[in-house]
Amino acid sequence: MATFYLSPSKSLTIPLQTDLSSSTPKPLVGFRCNLSLPSKTPAVTAEPPPVYSTVKTFAPATVANLGPGFDFLGCAVDGLGDFVSLSVDSLVHPGEISISDISGNNVGKLSKNPLWNCAGIAAIEVMKMLGIRNVGLSLSLEKGLPLGSGLGSSAASAAAAAVAVNEIFGNKLGIEELVLAGLKSEEKVSGYHADNVAPAIMGGFVLIRSYQPLDLIQLKFPNDKQLFFVLVTPEFEAPTKKMRAALPAEIGMPHHVWNCSQAGALVASVLQGDLMGLGKALSSDKIVEPRRAPLIPGMEGVKKAAMEAGAFGCTISGAGPTAVAVTDNEDRGKEIGELMVQAFAKEGKLKAYATVKQLDRVGARLVSSAR
Amino acid sequence: MATFYLSPSKSLTIPLQTDLSSSTPKPLVGFRCNLSLPSKTPAVTAEPPPVYSTVKTFAPATVANLGPGFDFLGCAVDGLGDFVSLSVDSLVHPGEISISDISGNNVGKLSKNPLWNCAGIAAIEVMKMLGIRNVGLSLSLEKGLPLGSGLGSSAASAAAAAVAVNEIFGNKLGIEELVLAGLKSEEKVSGYHADNVAPAIMGGFVLIRSYQPLDLIQLKFPNDKQLFFVLVTPEFEAPTKKMRAALPAEIGMPHHVWNCSQAGALVASVLQGDLMGLGKALSSDKIVEPRRAPLIPGMEGVKKAAMEAGAFGCTISGAGPTAVAVTDNEDRGKEIGELMVQAFAKEGKLKAYATVKQLDRVGARLVSSAR
Fold this sequence. Notes:
The structure is a homodimer of 371-residue chains.
Chain A: H1 16-21, E1 54-64, E2 73-88, E3 97-103, H2 118-130, E4 137-142, H3 153-168, H4 175-189, H5 197-202, E5 205-211, E6 214-219, E7 228-234, H6 240-245, E8 250-252, H7 253-272, H8 275-282, H9 289-292, H10 299-308, E9 313-316, E10 323-327, H11 330-348, E11 352-358, E12 365-370
Parallel strand pairs in A: 3-4
Antiparallel strand pairs in A: 1-2, 1-12, 2-4, 2-5, 5-6, 7-10, 7-11, 9-10
């Protein structure tokens, strides 16, 4: 096991490892951070040189929970997500990273301090894993996902950043390490859950089996089957605290058995490419959705509208407020989306927009690179 | 929809449909029953003639629960089970069934009244579904499974009987109807659960998705993979009431999410033929096994012994007292079994016997027939 030393500058001596894992981090003074403190699990023994001067990566939106898959299942959605551009930057102190730009709608809330930014935190973790102390990096984040919509916005940023750093240094790390880096980020911004960041990195459906140790199961949806997600996002800020508080602390045995069996059915439907079964499972949650749906104005009517329009199933995406329905046909998906938008307007008095996207089977990826 | 009338004799006018579904049936006077009352779901519109004069069927033992699959998952075990011989018998009143013989170890408790015998109840249900009123049948039950061992003894009898009646009349009914017939039997003797009787009829792994309507998912374990069950049954009567009473009424959210994810992982492992994953899932239950294992003397030590001997996983079969471990090799299975038997002796002061059997992929089947 290699040991990493403080970078020559010793400009920041804050124990970052502790800060990053602490839920109440100490205030920091700059927008850059020292990455050269010891890593718990250094994945490479010698610092790799950058193989590109610049890379651009993409990471997809994700739908977590999926009804009875609450807190352990998620999947990636193609054509919707965040981009990260990353460059070797001699103006950035070696071993450090700087966030130069954040673009996209409504991104004013996002910090450019890498220690407080999901992309920054994940990037820092990957730099730590790689033991980077002689190269400075500059990161630019292009948000394609709205914040707080229930589509894994923070996970997409983290995934794109983790993959970007890994790619610029020659793709030395494995999936698991990238997910762990993403988890560090999620832990800070939305809780220690991998059900968005794992599918954002890996693509497809991912089951989080355990965290200690991290154990992920990729669930392959058959290549010859098509799966479309109808994502309908209302203009409504889901009250995260309320959403969490709405969860029951205790669950009666009949509901536990029911949801467990539906979770099993969901996994079987994914692996068997059974779209009707998948939709049915998606719609079947008796524990979380019944508590959360009433907190999103119109959600119950939206689900009803989706089912009446022929969706195979419908539920809340993540903690909402986006509603997700599934179908096997893009045009049908658009019709379903329109009716769901109408239902949000009628039943929830909310303006909403719909988009129809396919399952993403790839996950976070390199989009372009230059040497 | 066909309507069935009372048989010409009108010898028994007890409303059987009601009696069979009632939890407190009225006492009956004979060992035969009238099958010609209306059936809720007549599956065939004309009474089929028998195509054989006699048939013999087999139905396998089953392992239900499988750790986190509590109350909705089960699988069949080859080479261990019950036989039913069924004959057209002119001495039996048309439309009725008689149990002529029950053989096997320790079967004294079993009633020969078809209304109170698992095989009889299932057979009656199938006769009802087929609308049999002109043929009398005689049934002989050969118990290969010990009662109350947690290996689906009642389900095996019911499955073998249901399939026998269906076969003797030309195999007119589908799997679902046979399972429903088996369920009628299970309802009466051990509760309305299909997690034994469905795999006993269908073979392999079966997920019970719902009862209203009955929705079953067959989970195909890859043909090119071997899966052995080490079944170790102690000489101990598991206290059924205590076993049920030991279940928690309420489950905390973290345990619910954990068990749900393990159930999903179990399903994925079966479909992907991932034996290590399957074993891990089998061993992972945090809700039921921790409550029930202490009620079976030595069980915790037996599980430990199985794992130390190289089993992929181990848990309680059904409600016990049989312990089930999984492995991919018969000889290894025998070694594991010996160590589990030793552990039952040492830790539970119980005599136990071990058997190693493969996954049954076929389910209840015709063994022989004569015209």
